[in-house]
Amino acid sequence: MKKAIIVTAMLSALAAPSIAKETPKVSVATQEVVPGIHMLYGEGGFIGGNMGLLVGDEAVVLIDDGMPNALDLINKSIAGISDKPIDYLVNTHVHGDHAGNNAAMSEAGAHIVAHENLRQHMLDKGVQGPEGMVPAPKAALPVLTFSDRMTFHFNGQPATVFHLPQAHTDGDALIHFTEANVIHMGDTFFNGLFPFIDLDSGGTLEGYIHAQMKVISMSNDETKIIPGHGPLASKADLQKALDMLIDCKKIIMAEIKKGHDIEQIVKDNPLHKYHDDWNWGFITTERMTRQLYNDLSQHATSGSGHSHGGGQGHSH
Known about the structure:
The protein is an alpha/beta fold. The protein has ten helices and 14 strands.
């Protein structure tokens, strides 16, 4: 049931017309994670990645801002929680389903915070537009950037923003509400789904694994984790995803060491045991196989560190 809901939400915009006479109504649902911290997510359609919202008398902080076509729904949902304007917007990474409303939020008064690589990526490569990548408007750019970490001190809920190197992209940020024991991981965690590792934007398999290991080391059984996609999660959910990823790495590496090329590996379908539980419309079992091969095959013989050049980001 969980998988069906997630896939429906993320692919509804691309799916074939329903046989039902009425199109499901798209909305932005809210879930109070702990008092003062909320998770916002799409229902009935894809509105972007999961958002986080810190509210209180001192400041309102939004984590990620969804896709442009969902801006009105997102604003309506936020207004249902707080009547105060957004003071700070934290981007977890550069993709358009997480940073698609930067310009609108900035023009409404929010100060955008992100890792310095994200700002540079926008300057070099632009942002996702309706017809592809377009130059980034000034309003979409982060005005506060960091290299390693920074901390917010608002509403009695201190939040440290960490850089996760070369994980989902080369500009990933993790937000840890230390007192509340809540972590927003952006797309370094797809709960219950094969992850997307954007090799063209500086992401790496090894960095992705290390990012998840870091969060597990910061967590306990009471930690609440907001993933980039999928339902609110626990440390156990993240451990399950990490175990899957490490095993998939081992499986694909073994195929590479046998001398098999990617087409042979895809044909053999070595990740078949994970298909029923982890396959979904964007990262299918085949695409998961290919992205792991593309990363691992570059380093199987050299033993060198991971290094990927920048490139156009993807919208998930």
